[in-house]
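Handout, tutorial session.
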Amino acid sequence: MKKVLKQVAGVDVAQNELVVTLGKMFDDLSIDLYAHKVFRNTEKGILTLLDWVKKLTDAEVSVRFVMEATGVYHQKFAFYLYAQDYEVSIVLPNKISNYMRTLENKTITDKSCSEAIAQFGLERKLDRWHKPKKIYRSLQQLTRERDQIVMERVMVKNQLHAEQAEAEPNERSIERLNERMRLLNKHEKEIKSDLNEIINNDTILKSEITNICSITGIGELTATIVLAETNGFELIRNKKQLTSYAGLDVKEKQSGTSVKGKPRISKKGNRHLRKAMYLPSLSAIKYDENFRNVYVRIVSRQGIKMKGLVAVQRKLLEMIYVIYKSKNEYRKDYTDLKRSSALSLKDQYATQTGS
């Protein structure tokens, strides 16, 4: 009889439903997707789901629950599983969609998606998901709310400009638009106050943000967004993983001599991180020679300014990660110090060998 090595419950999460497929991997590395059922995405439905999983799985082998990051709909289920100490892995949707293209499924349904998620979880070694710390969760909610307010304010400002430019503007409309502008400004001010209160009440977080803000172009809001969106870099293991998570990694399609696509950033990642890096990259290019050199080198080689700007954004994000992990402040002259140190060591070696 074959021995079970791994058990996975692949869950396709929707607003109201949890579509689940159970799968096993045996000691001969064969895979069996053997059960499928749909449950309500409610507390009662989750309890029924867990009872069903318990009855149909081997009690001696742990079950890993694998799901996509589907906006906010997966959070209730993931938080409950985490609280009950179940193994949970959350995968970016683009990874599952790319994986499904390698399968022979010609139709895409909730059932086929849950089967693909289960098979993906059985074949891959996935990191265990950890619930975001409450402080980072609060910061994320506030920074995203502020982003929505800023976008809405731009829209209202454009409407106000259009109304005022008319030959016969409607005074009541202008008055209402100005009132909305005042309300949005008031809400943004309240959010900034809430953010400052959270940061100032946590000395460790305050120190981390201060170090990150030593990087040219990075302000307190940007530092807060990066820490909030990465949960304090908890699941980030290296710089490459971070740029991929932000969608700033480069994708390239090339095959033989006939297919040669232009290298582009994937944009399949956290859009809030990408957006937060845009304005700081402009300041970094203007005021920091290190980042300006990166920008000039890319633009002179590629001839496209946006590529140079994206390279600086990626470099800034990586620098934030390095500063956070090292617990040190950023130094513009680090490259010069490193070069002079290397030259000094070279001189010492030359002296020793000469004598």
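The second record follows below. Compare its token runs with those of the first.
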Amino acid sequence: MSLKADYLKHTLHFRFEAGTSRGTLTEKTSYIVRMYDTADPTVIGYGECGPLVGLSYDDRPDFESQLQDYCQQFTDLDLQLFSWNIPIILNQLIEPTFPSILFGFETAMHDFLAGGQRILFPSDFTNGTRNLPINGLIWMGSESFMRQQIDEKLAAGYTTIKLKIGAIDFEQECDLLAMIRSQYTAEQITLRVDANGAFSPDEAMRKLERLATYQLHSIEQPIRAGQPDLMADLCRSTPVPIALDEELIGQMEYMHKFWLLRKIQPQYIILKPTLLGGMRHCDEWIELAGRLNIDWWITSALESNIGLNAIAQYTAQFRNLAPQGLGTGQLYHNNIDSPLTIVAGTLHYNPAQRWDFSTLSELKSARD
């Protein structure tokens, strides 16, 4: 056995201009890690490293060169791979400052060990008998564009809607929430909002009090990350449950994670494996949240279907789930065809549907 790792660079193109509080997105670059035995190159484990510009801990100019170095180092080690040594290899090979590379390698390793069939964690989800509840995401944009998205999500059967706020006028955003509440009660439609840190500390409580009138489930990251004292104060007195999101990025040490959650005591945390260093780091967050009586849900971070598939299968290991943030696979013109589909506001895995990597066929390996 001689294990080799390389990668393919793939630029994903959005179907529309996706607005966030950090700007508008039209494309996103991912790096698809491939792991295989040179003695049998037909069995390939795939993983995705997809840092988000302006947000990821490893959004840095030398990202691709570092990824290439890690692929070379992995290949040079001539390793034998087992489920028990995956955490050891990840700890020894990849610096914690590269969380998306950790996730990509972790996924590729699990996929390779499972026979390269993209079934990392077999379950009733992967055999098609259980769907995962997900929220319908409403992207920022003009009021008419956001209204259009809301109508489409409600018509598609979603019972949980998440609106990104902070880009247009706050009163217009409140009007959208009021429009939904005029048609659906909180028992019929669950509303979440994501501020992406857009509120200033001085205005945050006033806006939270206004948002509370719309019977929201939660608000993600109302103020900018890195202000633990202010966030702790908000979480103690907020009329809307608060979920930490960006606040978790860069917290790679177990004790630092524990300190942060104990300090802030949020009502929820949002787990994004690409941004947090992979599934084993999510395991740590989940264990700590359980000890501190903090709820959580898992969200994708604009990955292609390779990353989304791994996150969904990881999520499916848990039961009694609230709606998760796993509906981003339909965002792109040139996504990788997969068994993942959305059915009536849930994520479904169709085991009869084959993976199609033809969108990657034009790209050459970084090491070819």
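Points raised in discussion: The CA atoms of residues 22 and 208 lie 21 Å apart.
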